[in-house]
Amino acid sequence: MDKDFFEKVNAYLIKTAENNNGHIENEEALAKRFNVSRYKVRQVLGVLVQMGALDRSPRRGSILKAPDKIKINDQLKLQFDIASFDASEYLEARILVECAIIPLITRRVTPLMMTQLENILDKLAENADSPMDADKYDRDFHLLLLKACGNRVLQVFSGVLVTYFEKTSGALTSRDRQYFIDTAEKEKRILLYIKNGNAKKAADLMREHLLETEES
Questions:
Q1: Is residue 23 part of a domain?
Q2: Quick check: is 81 in a domain?
Q3: What is the pTM of this model?
C-alpha cells in the first residue's frame, strides 16, 4: 500500500468524521473524491478496521474512532503495517530491544508468568508439525517476555513484534518440524538462564537465536 495515499485518506477521514459523529463516506464516494479505484480505498479502510480504528456495519455504515481512543500500540502497529520496512530492519530492532530487556525480565518476571512462558514453549514443541500454530506460539512467547519486563513504554514495541511475524509468515512453508523443535529448545535455554538470574547469558543466547532466525 502507498503510505502517502494512506495518510492522505486517513487525514481526510479524521477531519470529516469529527463533524459527522464519526461517520465517513462510503467506498464509492471516497474513490471518486481521490480519483482512485474502490479497491485502493478498500485497502485503506481494511487496515483501519484491522487496527480497531474503524467500525464497519451494514446497518450503521462506517464509523471512525477518535484518534485519542485508539491505543498508542495500535497506532504504532498501523504505522509499521503501512511502512516499507523490510524484515532485516525489524530483526535489527528486535535484537536491540529483546536483548536489552532481559535484565528487567530477570528481576521482574513473576512465577505465574514464568509458568505461562514454559507452557507456551511446550505448546510450540507440541505443534512443531503445524508451522502456522508453532509460529503463533513462538510469537506469543516473545510478546509475553516483553510484558514480563514490566515497562509499559517498552511494551509498545509489541507492535513491531507482531508485524515482524506477519511479514515473515511467507517463510513458514520452508520450515520443517525440526526447526520449531530446535526453536523451542533454544528458547527454553534462554528461559532457564532468566529463571536462574543470569541475565547476561540469557541475553547472549537471545542475540544468537535471533541472528540464526535471520539465516534460516
A1: yes
A2: no
A3: 0.64
